[in-house]
Amino acid sequence: xxxxxxxxxxxxxxxxxxxxxxxxxxxxxxxxxxxxxxxxxxxxxxxxxxxxxxxxxxxxxxxxxxxxxxxxxxxxxxxxxxxxxxxxxxxxxxxxxxxxxxxxxxxxxxxxxxxxxxxxxxxxxxxxxxxxxxxxxxxxxxxxxxxxxxxxxxxxxxxxxxxxxxxxxxxxxxxxxxxxxxxxxxxxxxxxxxxxxxxx
Length: 200
Ligand SMILES: N[C@@H](CCC(=O)N[C@@H](CS)C(=O)NCC(=O)O)C(=O)O
Description:
The chain is of the alpha+beta class. Helix content is 54%, strand content 7%. The protein is built from eight helices and four strands.
């Protein structure tokens, strides 16, 4: 399998964390890709020009991290990260949606930071920040379980991205129970081994 990859993307981290958890990361070749430059190989796999995108062993091009992660869940026989049915499934999918949404908001805000300051930009950025702050409050009020599944992986990747790109806005003082959860969860190899690079 071939993964269009960026070491700073939290969505790529989520995909790799799933692969590590399922012990199939050795089957994935990483192709470092600047999605913003829209290289033709990426566009051939993903017309949206985003990473992650995965070419499967059968040559199928898949994109959007939830789709890729669910595909990885079908490879070989390790324990699934998507619970098959019932309450555990809906909770995991809801947590995945929350983690992905936090990453969408934080990535968008980070992108806007590079542009000249103007009222419309500031309104947009404040809206993204509010979405992340509300999500942190929801998670603090109902801290996730420690089981490694698609939901807890997505939330951990979102919190890791806040630490990586918004270290100047510490979230732990207002979410201490979530901070304790993350400290323990981050010891799992799938999170420990996928930390973003220092100082970028
Ligand atoms: N919904 C997508 C989001 C992926 C995404 O936003 N990737 C960013 C990097 S973190 C990207 O490739 N951005 C390039 C662009 O928007 O042009 C997923 O879950 O995979």
